UniProtKB/TrEMBL annotation:
Key words of the record: ATP-binding, Coiled coil, Nucleotide-binding
UniProt cross-references to Pfam families, sorted A to Z: Pkinase (PF00069)
Organism of this sequence: Oryza meridionalis
Matches recorded under InterPro entries: Kinase-like_dom_sf, Prot_kinase_dom, Protein_kinase_ATP_BS, STRAD_A/B-like
Listed name of the protein: Protein kinase domain-containing protein
Ranges where the Protein kinase domain occurs: 14-275
């Protein structure tokens, strides 16, 4: 066994041959281990560039050194070389399944090949899960294949141990992974997630291997997130999928269930009848590796394509879709997440009371709202929707929120988005609480809601007080609801900020420029349909006439009504915001506005106070943690076991009964160090003890340093004990 040999930890003992892969964090080289005369792959991470993710690196290296399974890519050894970390691992000469597809199978593999690849990956997952790990980045780009057809799952860069941080975390909340493969619960960040997130990614990987690309792979990340949350799960039910067996379709459908509790465990999935189609490694080598150019050459070709794409993007209009495609070709995890988009969309909603804050919205966004507000544009939007509707176009252009409301980024962006777009999993039956909170929303079709809003509008357009008109129509009133629909609603006839802009050339000009943009597409999920995966006949539609259908997606008249409802809600919120602005600039407004304004201001002040307190708390905790990196060296020796405090903070502690208890599982040096700390400073974590605790920590740093070195040495080899 190669890994039983002692691989040197001196970079001079390796000869780098060529680059064979790159990702977000690393470049991978084919190399020769000179003394052992063995080809290896070296993953080179620049620690200076990754300095804010040392914990991630620690996880990856630690996991790679501890795992021991034929289907997992383990590390022979690792060491620092200047500011780089070198991870020495087996060289998988055929590269990743993604690379192979991109070179020779652009439309995907045949079913027996897929079954063989997936079975090997699933074996790796069964092992990982039994050890308490979630991989969190299962995808074709991380399925590595050797020339003899051996398959290994690699890239533990974002893997997580369920028992990390000594806290016996039973659910994770960190927002990591690659959007197309990311499970809805990882995106939503409502209740945390567990091993089942890997099963979702596994299902997406199955589709990727079948089609040559993952569902939604050509869209920008934000769009992918919304599509995953809003649409029915993808599956193998298009015309082109006829070639696949029933058992394959069933496997995919079993994995891609939005409710993670309804997904099987990896162990159970391994018994699925689909894997009867799996063959041997030799079969794999014969069927997909024969005639394949060497990995380095393929890598250079793909790089060339990527450069061409980049060039054409620069020459032509730079489309996000093309850029996503480029990222996809590279097969990397770190899509260029536009967190600003997330922030902006999420910041629309105040989770605690459903209030929309529109102060500070930039002109682009305001104008966008204005555009949606104008009746002619609504109909323009409708016309565009009908004319150009594609399933993908059903997603609202959330990117258009650029620059708006970036000040308060919720720690769980998609939870906030959920409030905004009602993006609950389709499989989730409404809870009793949901139904209580939305007395009429579940039982009223969007069309009816729209009608009720219209009725409310006409009831109020005769000049009733603003405060009254700012309340929600009776069908939407709900003090406890956090949904967007529970926000304030002012009929546009009462107070429309845009009724007064006739003399404002800037606004009018912008309006002219933007009126052709298409903002079509429902923001609401389709109502729960237990048969969502089946083709639906027009007469079966209970929620409006189908205007256009493609695959499993459809645009109904209700979708359009939903859009109109949203447009009007946005309009109302805008009006409140403008009314508040006007009152601060001295124009006379009904007292209700002043009251509302004060209420909002005091609410904002409270929020700011809480944020400051939380920030202080985070600082304090960070300070404690950084005690052990006080001696920061270019090598990451001391940093390597610093816990990821943010994850600890995000842990909501929700107990997941089906997750096994830590019975010692995978060794966790960090926990060991923490346990020793605990005994050194006493278990009392009360506030009165804080100063004492800090003092003991200071005094104990030398001892701690030794312990960390010892733990480094024990779990990651002597070279880590530098
Ligand atoms: N042992 C190996 N043998 C051959 N090629 C490899 C090996 N490890 C990685 N590669 C190639 O290098 C690419 C990047 O490696 P890896 O995924 O580990 O880096 P990363 O920065 O973590 O990537 P990502 O962006 O996907 O997270 C892989 O997609 C694969 O094509």
């Amino acid at each position: 066994m190669e890994h039983a040999r002692r691989f040197p930890t001196d970079p001079k003992e390796y000869k780098l041959c060529e680059e064979v892969g790159d990702g977000v964090s690393a470049t991978v080289y084919k190399a020769l281990c000179i003394p052992l005369n063995i080809e290896v792959a070296i993953k080179v991470l620049d620690l200076e560039k990754c300095s804010n993710d040392l914990d991630g690196i620690r996880r990856e290296v630690q996991t790679m050194s501890l795992i021991d399974h034929p289907n997992l890519l383990r590390a022979y050894c690792s060491f620092t070389n200047g500011h780089q970390l070198w991870v020495i691992m087996p060289y998988m000469a055929a590269g990743s399944a993604l690379h192979i597809m991109k070179t020779s199978f652009p439309d995907g593999f045949e079913e027996p090949v897929i079954a063989t690849l997936l079975r090997e990956v699933l074996k790796a997952l069964v092992y990982l899960h039994s050890q308490g790990h979630i991989h969190r980045d299962v995808k074709a780009g991380n399925i590595l294949i050797d020339t003899n057809g051996a398959v290994k799952l690699g890239d533990f860069g974002v893997s997580a141990c369920m028992f990390d941080t000594g806290n016996r975390q039973r659910a994770r909340n960190t927002f990591v992974g690659t959007p197309c493969w990311m499970a809805p619960e990882v995106m939503q960040q409502l209740h945390g997630y567990d091993y089942k997130a890997d099963i979702w990614s596994f299902g997406i990987t199955a589709l990727e291997l079948a089609h040559g690309h993952a569902p939604f792979s050509k869209y920008p990340p934000m769009k992918v997130l919304l599509m995953t949350l809003q649409n029915a799960p993808p599956g193998l039910d298009y015309e082109r999928d006829k070639r696949f067996s029933k058992s394959f379709k069933d496997l995919v459908a079993t994995c891609l269930v939005k409710d993670p509790r309804k997904r099987p465990s990896s162990e159970k999935l391994l018994k699925h009848s689909f894997f009867k189609h799996a063959r041997t490694a030799e079969f794999l080598a014969r069927s997909i590796l024969d005639g394949l150019p060497p990995l380095g050459e393929r890598f250079r070709t793909l790089k060339g394509k990527e450069a061409d794409l980049l060039l054409s993007n620069k020459l032509g209009s730079e489309s996000k879709e093309q850029l996503s495609q480029k990222e996809y070709i590279r097969g990397i995890s770190g899509w260029n997440f536009n967190l600003e988009d997330l922030k902006n969309a999420a910041a629309l909603i105040d989770n605690s009371n459903g209030t929309c804050h529109l102060d500070g919205v930039n002109s682009k966004f305001k104008d966008g709202l204005q555009e949606a507000n104008e009746p002619e544009n609504i109909y323009q939007g409708r016309a565009n929707l009908v004319a150009s509707a594609r399933p993908e176009d059903e997603i609202q252009e959330v990117e258009d929120l650029d620059g708006a409301l970036a000040s308060s980024f919720p720690s769980r962006p998609l939870e906030a988005l959920k409030s905004c777009f009602d993006v609950c999993g389709d499989d989730d039956p409404p809870t009793a609480t949901d139904l209580r909170e939305q007395p009429n929303m579940e039982s009223t079709s969007p069309m009816q809601q729209f009608q009720q809003i219209e009725n409310h509008k006409s009831a109020n357009c005769n000049g009733e007080s603003l405060e009254r008109s700012a309340s929600v129509p009776s069908n939407l009133v709900n003090s406890g609801s956090h949904k967007f629909l529970s926000g304030s609603l002012i009929p546009e006839h009462v107070l429309s900020p845009y009724r007064n802009v006739g003399n404002d050339p800037a606004r009018n000009g912008h309006q002219k420029n933007t009126c052709n943009r298409n903002r079509s597409g429902p923001l609401f999920r389709q109502m729960k349909d237990p048969r969502a995966h089946l083709p639906v006949e027009p007469e079966e539609q209970s929620e409006g006439k189908v205007i256009q259908r493609r695959g499993r997606f459809q645009v109904t008249s209700d979708s359009i009504a939903q859009k109109e409802v949203i447009s009007r809600l946005i309009s109302s919120i805008e009006e409140i915001s403008d009314a508040a602005d006007a009152s601060t600039t001295g124009s006379s407004q009904p007292s209700g506005v002043h009251f509302r304004e004060k209420e909002l201001q005091s609410y904002i002040a409270n929020l700011q106070q809480s944020v400051t307190e939380l920030a202080e708390e985070v600082q304090r905790l960070k300070l404690k943690n950084t005690q052990c990196i006080y001696n920061a060296s270019p090598k990451i020796t001391y940093c390597i076991f610093v816990s990821n405090q943010e994850e600890v903070l995000q842990d909501d502690g929700a107990a997941e009964p089906d997750v096994p208890q830590d019975d010692g599982g995978a060794a966790d040096p960090e926990r060991e160090v923490q346990a020793q700390d605990q005994s050194a400073i006493g278990k009392d974590g009360s506030e009165g003890e804080e100063e004492k605790r800090e003092g003991v920590l200071q005094a104990g740093t030398n001892a701690k340093e030794k312990r960390i070195r010892k733990a480094n040495s024990k779990y990651m080899g002597p070279e880590w004990a530098v």
